[in-house]
Amino acid sequence: MLTRYKGRDKVKGCGQLIAKGSCHRKTWVAVARKLAVIMHALWSDRTFYVGDAAATATDTAQRAHGKVRKLMGAHR
Question: Is the pLDDT of residue 75 over 60?
Answer without folding.
Answer: no
